[in-house]
Amino acid sequence: MAVFLVIAYLFSKTPWFKPLTTESLRFRDKLYIYFFFSTISILGTYLGFPIHDAIANTRAIGPVLAGLVFGPVLGTATGLTGGLHRYFLGGFTAFSCGLSTTVEGTIGGLVHVYLVRKNKSRMIFDPKVAFVTTFFAEIVQMIIILLASRPLTDAVALVKVIAIPMILTSATGAALFLSIIRDQKNIYDRVAAVSSARAFKIAERTLNILSRGISRETAGDLAKIIREETGVGAVAITDKENVLAFEGEGSDHHIPGDPIASPLTKEAISENKVIFVDGVQDPYECPISDRCPLNSVLVVPLQIDQDVIGTIKLYEPKNRFFLNINKSLGEGIANLLSNQLLLARYEDQKNLLMTAELKLIQAQVNPHFLFNSLNTIISVIRSDSAKARDLLVNLANFFRKNLKRGGELTTLEDELDHVNSYLTIEKARFDDRLTVEMDIDPSLLKLQIPTFTLQPLIENAIKHGISNMLGPGKAKISAYRKGDSAVIEVEDNAGTYSQKKTADGLGINIVDKRIKNIFGRRYGTAVSCIPNEVTRVTVEVPAGGSGT
Amino acid sequence: MIRALVVDDEIHAREELNALLAETGEFAVIGTCANAVEAIQAINREKPDVVFLDIQMPVINGFELLSMIDEKIMPLIVFVTAYDEYALKAFDENALDYLLKPVDKERIVKTVRKLKTMLNEGGRPVYAGPDIRKIPCITTAGIKLINVSDVEYVRSNEAGVYIVCAKGEYFTDLTLKVLENRANLIRSHKQFLVNIDRVDEILFHDHMAADIKMKSGKTVPVSRRYLKLLREKLNF
Q1: Cβ atoms of A25 and A33 closer than 8 Å
Q2: Are A304 and A342 in contact (CB under 8 A)?
Q3: A380 contact residues in B (CB cutoff 8 A)
Q4: CA dist list (Å): A128 to A101, A131, A177
Q5: Strands of B210-214's sheet, edge to edge?
Q6: Whole-angstrom Cα distance, residue A375 to residue B101?
Q7: CB-based contact B16:B8 (threshold 8 Å)
Q8: A184 and A88, same structural domain?
Q9: Which of A109-118, A357-366, B90-99 has the lowest mean pLDDT?
């Protein structure tokens, strides 16, 4: 018995044990498990001691555990192997013992199936379950011996002697064996959990930094975080030509800003491959200083869309081994950073696209408005030169604001000023066909909103709404507080909004996208339309910071 | 003097063009209209030589307006637009000319020359406008647009042309001829057009005459003259 446990313990410390801890098994792993437990079973036969022309033994442990942990197929196969082996050893219980070993493997397998079905697969690794299962399986074996061995009197005599010790020994052995497997599995799980936790922590800490792209400044922060989390001797980040950051031992001669000196890094960049120098057979030789303490290095390329944009390097000094876990972690980090960079680039492009769309819309809108406005003013000059002057000043103000709005955010007051210039001209154009009502909570005038939030909405209301009406058009702009939010509403009495009409949909979509980008998904625009009665566009932004 | 009508939904645009046309001394502006419905009435009534027509107008735009004018009284058309996205399209419509707002005084001189040449040659221009899908009708409340698919039939008498739908009938300024040619309504009688899609059955009488029973139960007369044509159209 003790021999067994020593074998189990030693085995659990070897890399051969690893397949037993994984969830999904390949065919090779299954074959391996089969051989392992079959050996255990056969060993159990040999390590037993002969009694009355039979063998008191722990042959059952292998098949029961194989069945319990890996299912009925492996259990039965293992049992059959152990059983066949026993059968050829002979004796008056040869057949019954051979058969019962197979049955015991199947019993283990059935318990496995039962636990999985009941969603209790955690209990598979419970030594108590192993004890009970083996206990029961061994009783079944005794019954089979009594039923299948002849002469019966010999069988009864044998069972009387071996039943209790065999049942107890096998059950206890199975329980202990399983607890060893379980402990080792837990250790593996914990190591995996610790390295995942470290990877997650690095991911979390680097996400914000990387959204700003890779530069001297962000690379310095990154290197510091990676060194803190991995605990390696030094971390360097390079672009394709220069060292961007260096943290840790050797920083006296590895200077950020210097061109890349190491041929390893150059190779990693040009070949787009991971390079590892373990420091044992193959020491890292610092190309800059021969007094450099660093001895081993991992160089992983950073890439965006298959283009190498730089490298991350992890070093260990002469007095430390480069841990395997840091090697895989290092490669993982480089992957992670590459993905984050891709994401950052994607975000950049999205913003660029949005700005481009916005500019396009402004450009599309303007010619029509411009020429009609000029036409109106030219006409007004004939009758009312003072009014014409006023309109021109407003037109100038409108275009100045259109051109000079580089910033992301502006105040509601500024937006309203822009809109008022626009409306003054539109009212002149449409004469009595357009009236505009304003209802603005004065405490919201300093409200921060994205530039070009209000103007496109008003322009939609007039261009796609009121200008298509034969009767009098009314537009209304209101701004009020609702809880922590500020709500701005633009409505017109044309009620012609339709989602299919891309022109107005596009303008509102861009306003919505920008608000969500800046303030989060809670905020944005909503449109409601009662045909021929009213179209109302509602904009919600956080009221915070507008002053009360 | 060239008898001109100015159609534009913006008052200042109308005033400015009026002033410019007056300055040339070549035009008698017989009216200004703020929308297509007013314009149809004015054209039917005044039969101007030329219409200065804005393209972007509420409800019925300049091109749609062209489809609603009887060919017999079709005036020459000069499109006036603020932005030249429509300019090429205007030429497709065989418009005589187009002007860009704000209108250059010197540019109008060229237009006058073209107009005079055309008027001397005589004959009516033909504009291939789009099919009519909505018929503008006059109600006490204002203007109502009736989808052609909702029309049962159209009748005319001394008072004018009436669009008859299941729900009621409405007065329109469009002529039977225009509706027949551009709205795909079928002539059944000198004074009637029917919407083929709304026909329930045709009841034959003696003397080669017939009545059409509409899906709403109303009946429309078919005259001998048009019965043959109707048979051809319906394949019976």
Answers
A1: yes
A2: yes
A3: 12
A4: 21, 5, 11
A5: B199-204, B210-214, B219-222
A6: 6
A7: no
A8: yes
A9: A357-366
Three-class SS of residue B10? coil
What gap in Å lies between CA A455 and CA A537, rounded to an integer?
Answer: 12
**Residue A70, Cβ density class (10 Å: 0-12 exposed, 13-18 middle, ≥19 buried):** buried
Q: What is the dihedral of CA B130, B134, B138, B143, to 10 degrees?
A: -100
Taking the C-alpha atoms of residue B209 and residue B203, their distance in angstroms, rounded to an integer, is 9
Residue B234 pLDDT level (bands cut at 50, 70, 90): confident
Second CATH level (architecture) for the domain B134-234: Beta Barrel (2.40)
A150, A195, A172, A130: which is closest to A53 by C-alpha? A150
Q: Which two tokens stand for residue A90?
A: 């002979």
Most confident of A161-165, A334-338, A446-450, A467-471: A446-450
In chain A, the residue whose alpha carbon lies closest to the alpha carbon of B143 is: A470
Q: What is the pTM of this model?
A: 0.60
A378 vs B37: CB contact, 8 Å cut-off? no
A470 and B83 within 8 Å at the Cβ level: the answer is no
Kindly state whether A148 is in contact with chain B, defined as any CB-CB distance less than 8 angstroms: no
Number of helices (H), then strands (E), belonging to chain A: the values are: 14, 14
Does B5 or A515 have the greater pLDDT score?
B5
Q: Which domain holds residue A8?
A: 2-193
Structure tokens at B2: 């060239």
Structure tokens at A466: 């009121």
Q: Parallel, antiparallel, or unpaired: how do β-strands A294-304 and A307-317 relate?
A: antiparallel
| Domain ranges for chain B | 2-121, 134-234
pLDDT digits (tens, 9 = 90+) for B49-99: 999 999 889 989 888 898 999 988 999 999 998 876 665 565 666 667 889
A430–chain B Cβ distance below 8 A for any pair: yes
Q: Does B19 touch chain A (CB under 8 A)?
A: yes
Give the number of domains in chain A. 3
Residue A151: cis peptide before it, omega within 30 degrees of 0:
yes
Q: What is the pLDDT of residue A547?
A: 45
Distance (Å) from the C-alpha of residue A417 to the closest C-alpha of chain B?
25
- Which numeric CATH code is attached to B2-121? 3.40.50.2300
Strands of chain B, DSSP E? 2-7, 27-33, 50-54, 76-81, 97-100, 134-138, 143-147, 151-157, 160-165, 169-172, 186-189, 192-194, 199-204, 210-214, 219-222
Do A330 and A475 share a domain, yes or no? no
A-B CB pairs within 8 A amount to 60
Q: Are both A183 and A131 inside the same structural domain?
A: yes
Provide, rounded to the nearest whole percent, the portion of chain A with pLDDT above 70: 91
Integer Cα distance of A448 and A488 in angstroms: 12
Question: Measured over all CA atoms, what is the biggest interatomic distance in chain A, rounded to whole angstroms?
Answer: 133
